[in-house]
Amino acid sequence: MKALEGVRILDMTHVQSGPTCTQLLAWFGADVIKVERPGVGDATRGQLQDIPDVDSLYFTMLNHNKRSVTLNTKADKGKEIFTKLIEECDVMVENFAPGALDRMGFSWERIQEINPRMIYASVKGFGPGPYADCKVYENVAQCAGGSASTTGMLGEVPMVTGAQIGDSGTGLNLAFGIVTALFHRTHSGKGQRVECAMQDGVLNLCRVKLRDQQRLAHGPLDEYSQAGSGVPFGDAVPRAGNDSGGGQPGRILKCKGWETDPDSYTYFITQAAVWKNVCDVIGKPEWKEDPDYATPKARLQRLDEVFDAIEVWTMTKGKFEVMEICNPLNIPVGPILSMKEIAEDMSLRETGTIVEVDHPERGKYLTVGNPVKLSDSPSEVVRSPLLGEHTDEILKEVVGFSDEEIKIAKDEGAV
Ligand code: CAO
């Protein structure tokens, strides 16, 4: 049995944040029933399409292992079917604009009336407060959660990151909240609300910057490169380029071939414990005992000089060569991997982190697999459903409709 086998999820999610959550639950064996508007479906099916009239990779990569039922939850017959689905499911997940479920007539109070064991989980852009009614997409959350103002190069515009920390990040929080509420239900016998705001999720991931905001009151942030460069700090945490976020200074440095290969770089961390190894590798053995370089405190004043010297060495080596040399010496480094390199990395295929999936309309494509590995509940990635592929099956099996009732629902345009 899979870890979440027997758990039935009523999936009202769309776009990225909600579907990330329900896909994760489906990978662990939950029966995820994705409810989509008849004829329309999740908007991402048609967004960024690379093959005309075929579900986009955006959609397929977020909706594996789910079943799709079409249902107009605003029509009377649709509401009747939806009510039955609420009765039969353990969890309902949604990430519509604030108030959309209430406008359909399914407030939290109404849902509890229908099924007191129901766990009702939502993603919104903001929690209660002045922005609670706003519609929010990824980059808005990154900006409002403190990520953009602390990302990018000093003196340049705020920067959003390619990692979808607002959408997928909040989806992960929501999945964790749902599983926690399911566990709580085993004691309490009752469902509860689970709410995750994207701003909160981003801020939670930016905690080191909130830490630094408070440290700033007690003086400059010495480990930021700008300190050693003599650039004064303002009253808010500045953008720190590629400086390491922790207590061990690090930077992105050029490697051999950087002039033509945009990803020929390495991240290099001058971990204090292995400083002597760093000195030997880069050909600066005299720095091991020199009081200007021998201690982390002394080096903080000359990070530019230190990293310039390391870069002179890294530029003579390929990024993987840097890794091969540094790893045995315990010097933490990491090649900057392009998406192409990651897609072609067979070790990631072997662990199921990247999976090749076959789709009836698009053929074979790559997707990310489950990043959480359970020894007794391995995840097998199953292709995403076509729009309404399981409508009849779900109406029969879950709602208990006869063929005649299904026909009536179809004739009325409810499914
Ligand atoms: N049957 C009938 N109506 C349906 C339906 C169904 N099966 N499914 C959805 N709808 C309706 C909704 O009820 C809503 O109608 P009303 O506006 O009349 O209440 C309408 O479709 C559209 O929903 P929406 O406002 O959520 O969609 P949008 O494209 O305008 O906004 C988004 C998208 C993402 C900005 C908004 O949903 C949002 O802010 N969500 C919360 C934050 C979030 O998750 N953001 C992440 C986005 S990327 O992951």
| Beta-strand fraction estimate | 5-15%
Q: Note the gap between the termini.
A: 32 Å
Rough outline: elongated
Query: What is the C-alpha radius of gyration, as a whole number of Å?
Result: 26 Å
The profile of the biggest β sheet is:
6 strands, parallel
Task: Tell me the number of structural domains.
Answer: 2
Query: Could you say which structural class the secondary elements and strand pairing correspond to?
Result: alpha/beta
CATH 4th-level superfamily of the largest domain: Crotonobetainyl-coa:carnitine coa-transferase, domain 1
Bin the helical content.
25-40%
Can you summarize this structure?
This protein is 36% helix and 13% strand.
How is this structure best described in words?
With 415 residues, the protein is an alpha/beta fold. It has 18 helices and eleven strands. The protein has helices spanning 17-27, 57-60, 76-88, 100-104, 108-114, 138-144, 167-188, 198-205, 207-215, 225-228, 275-281, 296-300, 303-314, 319-326, 339-343, 346-350, 391-399, 403-411, and strands at residues 8-12, 31-36, 66-70, 91-94, 119-124, 193-197, 250-254, 265-269, 333-335, 354-359, 363-368. Bound molecules: oxidized coenzyme A (CAO). Oxidized coenzyme A is lined by residues 15-18, 35, 37, 43, 71-74, 95-97, 100, 103-104, 123-125, 135-138, 167.
